[in-house]
């Protein structure tokens, strides 16, 4: 059984590390980078240049999975062909697609051209370099940063940047930069309940971050953003750096006559995470539209991508051994949002569907614990 795994993110790497050598099973992991990126920690790399990658080769030892460092250009599900950027074509009996998501700029004029993203290591490096440059002696121009989107990524990024900026401002005796968090919706962090959101909001204000909920980003140029205020007036904010974290969509790389796509371009999958109409193709992580026990879309998170990957890895082993596969039953163990340094807010799941709200240092430890769990699961 010739198996191709596309992408070594939370989903694809979990598949590969759950596999074992088996007679007749041939597996290849195709990933553009020679490393796995802890995407959930990119905001730390953006602010502090923290190391957030792990080389892939050692993680694959003993799995029987070979690594091909290459970029996927397109996948033709009807022909069972994967075309690589270098022109080579790979074929498969079983395919796992975990190529993640891309930023959705919602066609806001000038945004895609002028805003940075926070999706990969090079984005984090770009932001880190800007902040350092902004606090260098010869910097001229606007130092302020506008971040669009007050979901998990936007909030984690602005709090970490605020800490870094304060440090640099004191160390180099330069005035602090303004950090604006622009959000069209009425509140930050819509995934959290009101008490936790209130705590997060106060922390942002303590950092001096300008939280602009109810402000719709209308346009961006190289050094400004135009927002529409809640009173429907237009306001221009000068910006040295614009970063958009306001939306994602599934990577659009699969082609197939019978393919079904849902919101955000996510590929509809069955209860084994196989693309509808293509039982030999598993689509997992941010690209797949898996449903939970209530029939609602499973959130696009690392936590769920990892769960889907681990199940898919085990199911491929079961298929290779001629055994029945197991269905996907998602669980959300908790959600934590880091608020810079040792601060975080979130909740963890208790028995009988109860949630325990946690804030401060303990929430930070819980968030770190989920990252350690992930690290341990791929070793
Ligand atoms: C700053 C930030 C903070 C976040 N915080 C959290 C959090 O606290 N908790 C949480 O659960 N989730 C969090 N998320 C969301 C989480 O990171 C994603 O849901 C998760 O990464 C999705 O996993 P995936 O495997 O589907 O995709 P990814 O992890 O994005 O992996 C996709 C892989 O495919 C590779 N790839 C892409 N295109 C190609 C190509 N053409 N050819 C070859 N390889 C390719 C990429 O290099 C990558 O390795 C955060 C995201 C961000 C950006």
TrEMBL record:
Residues 2-309 form the FAD/NAD(P)-binding domain. Keywords: FAD, Flavoprotein, Oxidoreductase. One of its GO terms (molecular function) is NAD(P)H dehydrogenase (quinone) activity. Transmembrane segments: none annotated. SUPFAM superfamilies: FAD/NAD(P)-binding domain. InterPro entries: FAD/NAD-bd_sf, FAD/NAD-binding_dom, NADH-Q_oxidoreductase. This is NAD(P)/FAD-dependent oxidoreductase.
